[in-house]
Amino acid sequence: MNSIFLLLNLLPILFLYQFGGALHVSLPLTSEFTLSLIQTPLGTFFAYLSLISFLLVTIAQKSKKLACNYYVLQFLLSMAMLAIVLAGDFITFFIGWEIMTWSSYFLISKSNSIDIKSLQKYILFSLASAFSLIAGIVIAYSFAHSFDFSVISNSFKDMPFNIKVALIVLFSLSFFTKAGVIGLHYWVVDTYSKAPNLFSSILSAVMSKMGIYGLFLVYGNIVGYQELKMMFGTILNGTDFGYVLAWIGVATSIIATFKAITQDEVKRLLAYSSIAQLGYIIAVIGFGTTYGVAGAMYHTLIHTIIKLLLFINVAAIVAQTGKNRFSQLGGLIYRTPVSFVMLLIGIIGLAGMPPLGGFASKFMMYNAAIDTKFALILIGMLFSGAASFLYCYKLVYGIYLGHPTSKNLETTKEVPISYLIPQIILALLLVLAGTFPGAFIKIINPILVEFSLSTIPYSGLGVMNSAVGSFNGFFIMSAFVVFFVLILLLITRIKSKAKNNLNRFDISYCGEVPTQDTSLHFGFGFGTDLYRIKFVNAILKRSSSSFYESLATQTKKTSELFSRMYYGNIHNTMIIILLFFSTLFFIGVN
Amino acid sequence: MSLGYYFLLPVLFSFLTPYFKKLGSFTLRGSSILLSLVLFLQTVAYVGVKLPQISQFSIKPPLGIAFILDGYSLLFLLIFTFSALVVSFYMYWFFEENSGRDEARFYVFFNMLIAGSIGMILSCDIFNLYIFFEITGICSYTLSAFNKDKLGLESGIKYLIIGSIASIFIVFAIMLIYLQIGTVNLGLIAQRFHLIDPKISVLIVLMLFIGFGAKAELFPMNFWAPDIYQGSISSVNGLFSSVVAKAYLFVFFHLFYLFNLGSKYMLFVMVIGAITFLVSEFTALNQTNVKRLFAYSTLGQLGILFMALSTNSSQTVSGALFHLTSHSISKLLIFLALGILIHKFKSAKIDILGNFKSGFLTIVLAIGFLSILGIPPFSGFVGKILILKGFALSQNYTAIAFILLVSIVEAIYFFRLTAMMLDKKRAKVTVKVGSVNYIILTLLAVLIILFGVYPSLLTHYTDLATNALLHPTNYLNYALGVGL
């Protein structure tokens, strides 16, 4: 089963490669609707991103016994995403969007840990997102008289100002919900943490990127960055609109970063981290400058790679140990060394440290902020970037370092090879993205042309150019590798002399000797100290859940109020009908 | 074949039912299926024929009685005869499982119900229309009381009372029309309606509105409807939802556009439809009985249809008719599938029904739910997007926002049911689906998908129907007997 769907997942990639940018299909649905698929540089980028992710996740699913309908739904999901990114008109886009919604809903429902409340949260937010999207689509239609992207884009300039704003707000709300901007992220954490473990990687790495694709599509293609600049004016070197969006993004990333640090469940931490990373992308996506778009695009790529890597890694560990909390894990470095190295590479990328791809993307985004002179935004991004080190550290410490928290962790074996293959591929991609950042300039330049922005000069595979400065990834990587090998040699020489015959209970503090059930694992309480910082405490205590729960209560109350009318007394019904008639008659005659 | 057979054949069958019963229950059920099949095939044969078609009895209209089939009634005729066919097959299974129930009584009233509904949409004078209205009504009362328990009898008696009130209003309206214009022929009334004194015409319109509105389950007059659905067996619920309510809706808008009331009463009907939609969807959230829940869902969808059909714009009306067809199919699917579950669990409580385990039923129910919610690639999506598109073209953004916002409320209960079906923690009871039900449910689900991915199959007929509804010149000529 797995091999069949592996091949099936390979097919669209080959198909897309075969067409090489010239795909243009249109299919009349009725006399009024035509479905069309057009391959643009932007769409192609996202298409490869999602298809390759699906392929890698399918490889990882080899070791799980999954039913046929699981694979069918997953394939449907990948096709829906392909329809979204290749759509040439809004109807195709919307059909893809909705098929994505329900097929992912049924996939999430296959998890063992899912409950009705989380499912409801997921589907209602997704549908709210979809309905906001369709509202925008039909409003655009009422002016353009077409669903075609190019026609709507052309007639956008002639629409009244309030309609333009309404369209931008509706589309943004829809895509923000999918990407999980703070305030609209209520569904994200529960869904990512309770979905089937391997499917979480798709949710975080690919599905949230559909929101980013939508934002690019609307800001870059439909509205156009030039038009955004003309509509809202400029501030410093960027647009007003981009400045507001940047604050939304930075707030998202700071809040989510602190929330991530205090989580005890591994997948919840990753979910918050995913929200935080998408916050960066949203922060720079509206700048309307070359480096803003390039930074957002590069970070999209890097975040997809990292989140796939991390979620597959965690899924493997959970499958192997049956534990999904930091307080239940620890000390796996000797049992699962390969997984440890993979996770290490992942978090180095996530933290944005050189020499991996994460650095290159952060470099681009910081440069974009410097370029537009948004100093406060830059500070916010640096702050949340620095804070993200903490959760990266928690991730590696909580799972792999320290003491194992239970006996059976000491006998855990290395995870199956099918989990490791995609991780190794992704880690290599991450290394390559850091070593040859110049290759990305070649990918991004056609997209920049599509958005009618100036292109980035290309000077060699290893060099990443930007407005402020440039760096040579190849050089950094070479230097790093040399130092790394030297240090590794040094450590192994010291290590070989030390004796490793200590038991983890051979310690005592204040005269107390720990017993078997004393938790010696640091990962347990990590991050709780943050509550003592007033500013962070204020962030951590607040939550959007109270708002949404009161909304749910209000809906329920309204429902009870209305259902009181239907208590089934036929006399009252008759009286109401007669009263209704006489009132209407009175109004009508006079 | 004359259009009169649409009425005569079922009536003949009803009178012959006692003899069929003597020949055995297989003959009874089989012959009912055969009858439905004949009616359905006859309707299919009308597809592609030049419309309108007229069948006159003895005297030429406007003096005599006639049946007229135009594009608008053809669409409804297709829905009705198809629903009747599906329900006859389903009842074959039902009586197989519940032997000892009064089969003959069911078939008499079932076929009369179909005859009455079809008569309502075909007849071209308002007095005959009233007679068919009464026939449909009486059959519905008896059918809703088919379960001779407390709930069933309650629903029967409530339906009887409400039906009588509605009839009084309609009879009064017809009387007033006859007093003012001196005719009951729809063509002549349409021609002379503007001559009536405005105050009297308001009274007539209001009485017709109350009469047909109460039967078509519009808001302040629909407090009885959920009780009826709760007391009836689920196949009858399917009929109420996809045939009977739709027949009243047909007449409502037929008269609405024939008498050219669009300009004056459009906003009024739209607001009433919107309130119906809002109240029903919110009320549905609070239900624990699955039949009541889908009763409210039906009311809500009728609300959307009233909103969209009253707009007088061909785009929206065409979308609404598409939505109506898709809703009929989906509700039939849902009610029949629920019937299987209710038969198994002997209860209609949602909590108990959620315990079933059957991949097939889960899939078909999910398809039905998604279709009613208007999610692609199912047929409800096409209907909903066409309605929204129509509203967008007339720049009625309030209606768009309203429909979308209330649809989220609708999604809450539909997905709560779906989540319940998918919940692995429940104690599951395997439900087996018989081969007959397997076939009809698959057929309905396939139709939903087919109309969703290839809507041109249906849009052709909805466009014809829209044209006939909004521009009834041809219909009027035939009703007046011009050129016969």
Structure, explained:
The complex is a heterodimer of chains A (590) and B (484). Chain A is mainly α and 590 residues long. Chain A has three domains: 1-223, no CATH class; 234-473 and 516-543, no CATH class; 545-589, no CATH class. Helices cover 69% and strands 3% of the residues of chain A. Chain A contains 22 helices and six strands. Chain A has a two-stranded antiparallel sheet. Chain A has a two-stranded antiparallel sheet with strand order 3-4. A two-stranded antiparallel sheet of chain A has the order 5-6. In chain A, strand 1 and strand 2 form a beta hairpin. The mean pLDDT of chain A is 89. Chain B has a domain at 264-453. Chain B contains 20 helices and four strands. Chain B has helices at 5-22, 25-46, 71-97, 103-122, 126-144, 150-181, 186-192, 198-215, 225-231, 234-258, 262-284, 290-309, 314-345, 350-353, 359-373, 379-393, 397-422, 435-453, 456-470, 473-479; strands spanning 53-57, 65-69, 356-357, 429-430. In chain B, a hairpin with a 7-residue loop joins strand 1 (53-57) and strand 2 (65-69). In chain B, helix 3 runs antiparallel to helix 10 (234-258), helix 3 (71-97) packs across helix 19 and helix 6 (150-181) crosses helix 9 (225-231). Chain B is globular and about 65 Å long. Chains A and B meet through helix 4, helix 5, helix 21 and helix 22 of A and helix 6, helix 8, helix 11, helix 15 and helix 16 of B.
